[in-house]
Amino acid sequence: RGCQYTSAQFGDLAEDLDVRLSVGRKGQCWDNAVAESFFATIKKELIDRRGWPTRVAAHKAIFGYIEGWYNTRRLHSSLGYLSPNTYEATHRVA
Questions:
Q1: Per-domain residue ranges for the chain?
Q2: Does the pLDDT at position 81 exceed 70?
Q3: CB neighbourhood size of 76 (10 A)
């Protein structure tokens, strides 16, 4: 909810680029609960476990975590203890 996102200049630029802005309601943390949960998980399981010598190293580790673990092998209780990729494959409409 940073002030830069509510400025007239930012709004004008978004309009010029045909970008629709979406801002959650103030004080309504559950508006963004899925994203908040994901970032809390990645911080707990990866980011906060070590120091990162460079941003590039952190970016590579985050990409590897998401594509090599989180989406492919990590079991999610909200998905019936399936990985996101497995869940999506079993629920895909042909």
A1: 46-94
A2: yes
A3: 15
Which DSSP helix (H) or strand (E) runs through 84?
helix 84-91
Q: Which amino acid is at 64?
A: G
Cα→Cα distances 81→5, 54, 86, Å: 37, 34, 10
Length of the chain equals: 94
Q: What is the pLDDT of residues 10-22, one digit of tens each?
A: 888 989 999 887 7
Q: What is the pLDDT of residues 31-52, one digit of tens each?
A: 778 888 899 999 999 999 999 9
Enter the tokens of residue 65: 């975590």
pTM for the model stands at 0.64
